[in-house]
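I'd like us to work through together how a protein chain folds, taking it slowly. To get us started, please write out a protein record for me. Label the sequence line and the structure token line clearly, so we can match residues to local backbone shapes. Once you have written the record down, we can walk along the chain together.
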Amino acid sequence: MNRKIITTNDGSVTIHIEDWNESYHSKHGAIQEAYHVFIKNGLDLFSEEAAILEIGFGTGLNAFITYLEHNKRKLKINYVGVEAYPVSVEEISQLNYVSQLDADQYKTIFDRMHESAWDKPTTIDETFSLTKRQQFFQDIKDENTFDLIYFDAFGFRVQPELWDEAIFEKMFKALKPNGILVTYACRTSIKKAMLASGFKVEKLPGAPGKREMLRALK
């Protein structure tokens, strides 16, 4: 499929899949969306440590922002990012997240995240472990492992099979009791799939350009 790097409204870039008219992040602002959905409404609920599962590692933006925030807050993070189709080296070289986040001192961290081997745990620093798993979401079999899930799959319009009850049952099993799942999406069918999987679900204000998002509790 044809892919190109585009600039979103907050100055940060994303990858746009032209054949689907779908982007890895919101065109209203990639960094804005990541902070609003996954940090403000997810990571902010944890004060000491968290095991995080990201559904859609993609460009590594969510992982990198989580690293920056864990550093400020003195959190201990075990981060697992699942991705079926890793982003190319050429595409990674065009991402401007380090400069847009004013995080030049952590460029080596961003690079290490992308250069680390797939399917092997990597110690990013003494309080942040990263494992990138090249895996289809349907093949996830974790149970009672994670405190927090960043559910950042491509949208329902292009991949509805990633938003059905079977997937959310896997997410429910993967979370520890009282675990949290957050996603940018807010569609009635998605909420129903979450509820049918056992989650308690709440609507929250969405990131800029989107009215609402969902947060689910096990």
